[in-house]
Amino acid sequence: MIKIDKIAKYPLSFTKGTPNQRRELASCLNFKFFKDISTKFKSKDVSFDVFQKTLDEAIPFPHNITVIKNDEKKGFLTACVNDECNIVNGYNMGIPPNSFSGEIPLTTADIFMHESAHYFSFMTNPKMVARIAKMFESGTYLKTQNFYNTVLYSKNKLSSFEISQKLDEFLQTLTVKERIDFLQNSRYRLTDEIFAYKEGAKYQDLIQKIHSDKICCKVDAVDYCDYDFETKIKIVEQKLIKELKNARAVKS
Ligand SMILES: [Zn+2]
User: Fold this and answer.
1) What distance in angstroms lies between residue 103's CA and the mean position of ligand 1's atoms?
2) In DSSP terms, which residues pair with 66 in a beta bridge?
3) pLDDT tens, position by position, 42-51
4) Per-domain residue ranges for the chain?
5) Ligand 1 centroid vs 114 CA: distance in angstroms?
6) Cα 9 to the center of its chain, rounded Å
7) How far is it, in rounded angstroms, from Cα 43 to Cα 157?
8) pLDDT band at residue 85, thresholds of 50, 70 and 90?
9) Fewest CB atoms less than 10 Å from the CB: which of 8, 22, 30, 150?
10) 182: CA distance to ligand 1 center in Å?
11) How many angstroms does the Cα of residue 192 sit away from the middle of ligand 1?
């Protein structure tokens, strides 16, 4: 079974509380990182080295996060596992560079503060990381990733009814255990996307206000309304309630 190393999660004494309290903690940690990184913009860009160092300094407790240049114009956050594939021992954070300077522009705060929000969410929610790791190990993650990306984390214009129908069809291809893991994980991931997009948008505005002298025009944060995460979370929750009820009925 994949374990989560102590450098890939915060101590329980630090993260204990309700899910809302943990979310609040992740938000506070992200704010601390923002305050630090904002002061490092002496021009409109900051180097990857400075970004990495500032992130390391803003993170409490021993940790392992590597910031990577991602030329695909988008950010990502992934967990790293050791060679034996049995311990999550850190995270990789992909950040897109400016194609001319190769550095990180302040007008991409919506991307880097989104990814740092995900990072602090993971660090304060080790149970969620454990579930993802478990799904990865059992193969459920690979089996469900395409559906998650094309129907749930996608901008397609499906009606609630169509999403619900597609989800029903897809769930039929999974075992009861896989269905419950997938639905619980999707609920967490979609909820975390709302959190990360909100954090990104908040700091995209704030950083451009603070450094208005360094930019020629304001760049709006990525618009995430088209993903309609709220509707999808509701649908996922309804299916999850049904699955859990059925599983309980079978057991008793
Ligand atoms: Zn995200």
Assistant:
1) 21
2) 92
3) 999 999 999 9
4) 3-251
5) 6
6) 15
7) 40
8) confident
9) 150
10) 17
11) 7
Distance 76 CA to ligand 1 centre (A): 7
Pair of tokens at residue 174: 């999974």
Per-residue pLDDT tens over the stretch 8-52 = 999 999 999 999 999 999 999 999 999 999 999 999 999 999 999
DSSP state of 7: G
Buried b (16+ CB within 10 A) or exposed e, 201-240: bbbbeebbeebeebeeeeeebeebeebbbeebbebbeebb
Going from the Cα of 238 to the center of ligand 1, the distance in angstroms, rounded, reads 23
Token representation of residue 137: 């190990």
- Residue 134 CA to residue 85 CA, distance in Å, equals 11
Q: How far apart are CA 74 and CA 70, in angstroms?
A: 7
Distance 166 CA to ligand 1 centre (A): 23
pLDDT beyond 90 at 65:
yes
Q: What local confidence, expressed as pLDDT, does residue 241 receive?
A: 96
Distance 246 CA to ligand 1 centre (A): 32
CA of 248 to the centre of ligand 1 (A): 33
